[in-house]
Amino acid sequence: FKRAGTPHTGFVGTIQWMAPDLLRSSPYYDEKVDVYSFAMMLYEILTMKEPYLGMSQDQIVMGVIERGLRPELASHYGPPGLIDLIEQCWAENPVERPSFDQIAYLLMKPEYHFTGTNEAEFRKDVPPPLFSQELQRAFDNEEWSNIDNLLSQINKSNSQNDEELIKVVLD
Hints:
Largest sheet: none
Strand content: under 5%
Structural class: mainly alpha
Number of strands: 0
């Protein structure tokens, strides 16, 4: 799916989890349709509700593509960071949806964790982000001052421990 502009099969999947760009039967889409579906899955886990429960498939399709319909996601369902991430992931415009690399980076941060996450246990099992990941995320988010700061911190030690660092800097 990384090849933008490549025709795909179009209308495939379960309506409740399908991105508006896919519902419009466009044969041109990329991995951002999966980001939208991921948002719906996060919504379902967070709220313990199926998206658009009680609506017909036609109502869902028309609501999503004509009115920008999304499930109701009240602030009491979870941490603000996680709710904001879900809303970014189900953005109408696929360009505005984060990449899975950006999502993975954010999900490592406590403010994006589900309520009740055992942070000590989480930190024990998940390594901290690599320097190259920090730099790529800053670039993806156009955080120019942060990029300058990160570039000034590159040294022999962090380049030896991060095989992707040189590639990220040179690309």
